[in-house]
Amino acid sequence: MATKHRSNSSFLFLLLLLHFILGKSQLQVNYYSKSCPKAEEIIKQQVTELYNEHGNTAISWVRNLFHDCLVKACDASLLLETVHGVVSEQTSERSFGMRNFKYVNTIKAAVEKECPLTVSCADIVALSARDGIAMLGGPNIEMKSGRRDSKESYVKVVEDFIPNHNDSISLVLSRFQAIGVDVEATVALLGAHSVGRVHCMNIVHRLYPTVDTTLDPTHAAYLKRRCPTPNPDPKAVQYVRNDLKTPMIIDNNYYKNILQHKGLLTVDEELANDPITAPYVQKMADDNTYFRQQFSRAVLLLSENNPLTADDQGEIRKDCRYVNAN
Ligand code: HEM
Ligand SMILES: *[C@@H]1O[C@H](CO)[C@@H](O)[C@H](O)[C@H]1NC(C)=O
């Protein structure tokens, strides 16, 4: 008994030591329960209202989570705009097609009105993604909060983290692996491509001068009608929806599509063919419940990448677009 007691207390001591060495507080479920009890309710209400006005805002919140969290940390660095001394991550080629950033300000303003300088933009990115996923018929995910905001943009290294549309699956897997997202979870995250759109810019290389032989011919003909020229104007609003059957629902239709060679991006097509990912693609196509479980787990892993949590790390931004003045 005495020995057990001693080993328990040395275990606690070790934990305490680790806490100080790592210098980290933890993310927590309902982190704002004392400092801003209505925070999560307000965010959810704003996400719902925005969804009712512009359904595609919910889609943007899902993509934001990927582009914010995979680049160093979930720290709202993505939201910083270009001003003196700062170049926005939104100007990276990898951010092509991202939209609805202005409505993040709507959410932040509603939260600021209730609790000034309390709720981080990084948590707004994370929680709006969670609520957006639920609006899009995806799973309800219990997500932690307590992330703080970066004081800088990482525009120079965005391409070291976010894969390109035509990168290999092994590169994609290694990028996710580096932040603790395993193969199964990576396959599940790509299921986000069951909503939203792809601009012709990112498709035409599979259509012209010759059609990519891996594409389903009927689908290729459809894509050529949607994208009739090999050199679309990057500013033109010419695009194809990811999932023609359920374009606004996060479901396993993505996996059915890519198994039928109707994926839009090269990575989508490759995900179905690569021997490492193919078994999971098949399993997710066969079983929507399994997909939803894996998608929830994967979103949590992504959302917990390397958060700033200590008081001396980052800040709580007043305006998500700018580092605080001081
Ligand atoms: C290998 C990884 C990935 C690559 C290369 C990739 C690439 C792309 C590209 C090129 C687009 C189309 C942009 C356009 O033409 O407008 C897109 C759209 C999108 N991606 Fe990904 N993506 C990846 C992973 C993810 C992940 C992990 C998520 C979220 C969990 C995600 C969410 C989305 C969403 C929601 C859209 C539609 C955006 C809209 O309609 O506004 N993607 N992605
Ligand atoms: C991938 O696409 C980009 C344009 O987005 C192009 O510059 C690059 O050459 C392509 N890479 C491969 C391996 O095809």
Care to count the β-strands?
4
Strand order of the largest sheet: 1-2
Rough outline: globular
Element-level helix/strand string = HEHHHHEHHHEHEHHHH
Structural class: mainly alpha
Helix content: 40-55%
What is the CATH architecture descriptor of the largest domain?
Answer: Orthogonal Bundle
CATH class of the largest domain: Mainly Alpha
Bound heterogens, unique: protoporphyrin IX containing FE, 2-acetamido-2-deoxy-beta-D-glucopyranose
Gap between N and C termini:
56 Å
How would you describe this protein?
InterPro entries: Haem_peroxidase (IPR002016), Haem_peroxidase_sf (IPR010255), Peroxidase_pln (IPR000823), Secretory_peroxidase (IPR033905). This protein has 326 residues and is mostly helical. The chain has two domains: 135 residues, Peroxidase, domain 1; 134 residues, Peroxidase, domain 2. 46% of the residues lie in helices and 3% in strands. The strands form two sheets. Strands 1-2 form a two-stranded antiparallel sheet. The protein is globular and about 60 Å long. It starts with a helix and ends in a 23-residue tail after the last helix. It binds protoporphyrin IX containing FE and 2-acetamido-2-deoxy-beta-D-glucopyranose. 2-acetamido-2-deoxy-beta-D-glucopyranose binds next to loops.
Question: Summed up, what is this model?
Answer:
With 326 residues, this protein is mainly alpha-helical.
Which tags fit this structure?
single chain; 326 residues; mainly alpha; Peroxidase, domain 1; Peroxidase, domain 2; 2 domains; two-stranded antiparallel ribbon; 4 strands; 46% helix; binds protoporphyrin IX containing FE; binds 2-acetamido-2-deoxy-beta-D-glucopyranose; secreted; Peroxidase; calcium; disulfide bond
